[in-house]
Each structure stands twice: as structure tokens, then as C-alpha cells.
């Protein structure tokens, strides 16, 4: 598992909360995409970002919370926000980063390898911050085996 350690700045993304099994977050991404189209801001989207707030191994899938977000090249004005689209802050700090090429369906295996193999053997431990994924290309026009995802795991030294 090829992990790099990065220090990241705090950033603000804009998102919609999803409650339910993590593989169903695509519904929230469709909703935020529809909103962005209606607002005429799709050209300002840099990346899609998913933030995972709960551990699906310890919480029932239907109770898992996540945020389907967009990182934009400029901040939104308050009047552009809606009742469901809100600013979400991703806290800066130390992160273990894994670059994945391929299907989103394979990401669960990456998480298992990180938490069960890499992390216990490293000099790091997980922090209270949520992990997040940055989708570097568009799944609507990219073959599944060419999808690029950076996964960020918040860590601190043991």
C-alpha cells in the first residue's frame, strides 16, 4: 500500500448531507450536481469530495452520515446557498494519502487495508477527524478502470 503523508490546510467545500449506506452517496452527489447546474456554477467545480463521518463497521449502515461535496474555485455567496447545500469545513492537519485508480467499488478494500494493515504497522494513529475522498475526474465520462480518487485519512504520530 503506497501511502504518502501530507500536511493540508483547512478548506471549505459545499455539500449535501447523506444519511444511509455509504455506497448510496451517489444520490446526494446527483442532488448537488442538479443544484450546481441550476445555479450555473458547474464551471467552477474543481473536484467532487465525499466526507465520511461514521465508521460503517460500528454503526448501522442506515445511520451512517456522509457529505457529498464540491470544491469550487471561488467561495459561494450566502445568497447562493440553499436549505440543503451548506458550507462544510475540512480541517487541516496531517493526513495519510492513498491514490487509487479504478472502480469506486474497490475503495472498501482500500479502507480495510489501511486500517487493518498499514495503520497498525505505522508510527501513526487516527485522529477524530473524518476521512474524505477527492474525486479527480468525472465518473460520467471516465471509464471505471480509469477513475482517480485520493483518499485522505487524518492521522497523528503515536
- How would you characterize the largest beta sheet? 9 strands, antiparallel
Query: What characteristic shape results from the CA principal axes?
Result: globular
Low-pLDDT parts are none
Portion in helices: 10-25%
Oligomer: single chain
Measured between the Cα atoms of the first and last residue, the distance is: 20 Å
Report the average pLDDT across residues: 95
* SSE pattern: EEHEEEEHEEE
- Count of individual helical segments: 2
Determine the CATH superfamily: Regulatory factor, effector binding domain
CATH fold-type name = Multidrug-efflux Transporter 1 Regulator Bmrr, Chain A
Under the CATH scheme, the architecture is Alpha-Beta Barrel
Total number of strands: 9
Overall tally of domains: 1
Pfam families: GyrI-like
Protein name: AraC family transcriptional regulator
InterPro entries: AraC_E-bd, GyrI-like, Reg_factor_effector_dom_sf, SmbC-like
Task: Give structural notes.
It contains 2 helices and 9 strands, in the order E-E-H-E-E-E-E-H-E-E-E. It is of the alpha+beta class and 158 residues long. The protein has a single domain, classed as Regulatory factor, effector binding domain (Multidrug-efflux Transporter 1 Regulator Bmrr, Chain A, Alpha-Beta Barrel). Strands 1, 2, 3, 4, 5, 6, 7, 8 and 9 form a 9-stranded antiparallel beta sheet that branches. It is globular. This is AraC family transcriptional regulator. Residues 1-156 form the AraC effector-binding domain. It comes from Pragia fontium DSM 5563 = ATCC 49100.
Amino acid at each position: 500500500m503506497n501511502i504518502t503523508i501530507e500536511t493540508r490546510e483547512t478548506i471549505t467545500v459545499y455539500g449535501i448531507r447523506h444519511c444511509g449506506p455509504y455506497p448510496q452517496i451517489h444520490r446526494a452527489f446527483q442532488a448537488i450536481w442538479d443544484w450546481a447546474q441550476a445555479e450555473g456554477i458547474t464551471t467552477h467545480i474543481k473536484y467532487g469530495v465525499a466526507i465520511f463521518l461514521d465508521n460503517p463497521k460500528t454503526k448501522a449502515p442506515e445511520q451512517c452520515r456522509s457529505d457529498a461535496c464540491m470544491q469550487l474555485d471561488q467561495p459561494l455567496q450566502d445568497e447562493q446557498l440553499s436549505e440543503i447545500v451548506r458550507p462544510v469545513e475540512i480541517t487541516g492537519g496531517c493526513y495519510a494519502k492513498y491514490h487509487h485508480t479504478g472502480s469506486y467499488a474497490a475503495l472498501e478494500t482500500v479502507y480495510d487495508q489501511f486500517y487493518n494493515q498499514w495503520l497498525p504497522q505505522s508510527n501513526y494513529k487516527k485522529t477524530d477527524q473524518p476521512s474524505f475522498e477527492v474525486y479527480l475526474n468525472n465518473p460520467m465520462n471516465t471509464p471505471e478502470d480509469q477513475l482517480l480518487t485520493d483518499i485522505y485519512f487524518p492521522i497523528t504520530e503515536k
